[in-house]
Design brief:
By secondary structure, the chain is mainly α. It has 2 domains: 44 residues; 30 residues, no CATH class. The chain is built from 4 helices and no strands. It is flat and about 65 Å long.
Amino acid sequence: MITINEAKAVAARLKKIHRAKFLAKQRECYDLYRAESRACGYEVESFEEYIGERNIREEFEEFYAGMSAQELQTY
C-alpha cells in the first residue's frame, strides 16, 4: 500500500519530468520563432511571454518604478 506522501512525491517527479519535456519542445519552437522574427525585423517577446507564463510581480515592479511620486500618491 502506498502512502499519501509517497503518492505526492511520485506525482511531483512526474510533473517535473513532463514540465521539462514541455519546456524543451517549446524552447525549440521559440528559437525558430525568434530567429524568423529577428530576420524580419520584428520585436521578439520573451520566452515566458511566448509560452504564456508571466512574472506578475516583476511587471508590477516595473510599472510602479515608472511612476512619479505624485502618480503613486494618487494611484
